[in-house]
Amino acid sequence: MTGGPEAGPRHVAIIMDGNGRWAQARGRPRLFGHHAGAKRVREVVECCPALGVKYLTIFAFSTENWKRTQVEVAGLMSLFRRYISKEMKALATKNVRVRFIGDRERLDKKLIQLMDALERETADNDRTHLTIALNYGGRDEVARATKRLAQDVASGKLDPESVDEETLPRYLDTCVLPDPDLVIRTSGEARISNFLLWQSAYAEYEFIDTLWPDFTAEELARLCQGYGGRDRRFGAVKT
Ligand code: IPE
Ligand code: IPE
Ligand code: MG
Question: Under CATH, to which class is 11-142+179-228 assigned?
């Protein structure tokens, strides 16, 4: 089967891993790799329309990444601030709508302001929906969603008898997004590291060896084409 936009994934989610090893291989500090990684995002976002990818979700910082050194965490936060300020115009003119998922509470005020501004500035765009997972963890997201769901039950807004598998997703950070069709992880690790746990129940996975700073639009095109040849049965038997 040939791939192409029609057969390709509508929602691609990427675990952008391998920045540290990319830098290490060059004898440079880990942050050098993070900067190189951030630079790859633009090309990947811009190739989405041609591939028929309407939704792109990227994992930028996990709830577990706070365990890294203070220098790396501070460097990443500063990189996110710079990335948002620098890319705001380009994203807006390319008709990209940006959303953030994850828990904002632990992030610094300046960064939160920039995230709000980018969401606001791009709110009317609809060519590509870019979602950036920042201080995101799948378990944390489900826990936060459950808390709000419980609050609605306690206040009488939600009948507990009506709760089914359509209910919880309405409380998730991703409530307005479709589930990912294809989840890609770079850098050779075959694990999902707490990314989109609920949403990826039926996603297809691609674990590739490329380190994120080496990832290209061509590679995404190849993976999307491979996806087009897969048989997604969702538990049923094809007749
Ligand atoms: C991914 O690259 C970026 C973040 C997790 C922020 P890593 O920093 O995990 O790179 P490796 O896995 O150490 O090579
Ligand atoms: C997952 O990568 C998180 C991001 C890409 C932001 P990690 O490098 O943090 O995951 P582990 O530690 O290998 O599981
Ligand atoms: Mg890693």
Answer: alpha beta
The CA distance from 45 to 58, in Å, is: 10
What's the gap between Cα 5 and its chain centre?
20
pLDDT digits (tens, 9 = 90+) for 135-180: 999 999 999 999 999 999 999 999 999 999 999 999 999 999 999 9
Q: From residue 121, give the alpha-carbon distance in Å to each of 81, 91, 105, 132.
A: 16, 9, 21, 15
Q: What pLDDT score does 239 carry?
A: 75
Cα-based distances in Å from 171 to 83, 149, 175, 202: 28, 7, 6, 19
Asked if 28 and 73 count as a contact pair (C-beta separation under 8 A), the reply is no
Would you say residue 104 has pLDDT above 80?
Answer: yes
Q: Whose CA is nearest to atom 6 of ligand 1?
A: 61
Q: What is the pTM of this model?
A: 0.96
Give the number of the atom of ligand 2 that is nearest the alpha carbon of residue 60: 6
Ligand 1 first shell, C-beta below 6 A: 16-21, 61, 65, 76, 187
> What are 202's two structure tokens?
């039926």
Find the helix packing angle between 30-51 and 70-93, rounded to 10°: 30
Q: What is the mean pLDDT of the chain?
A: 96
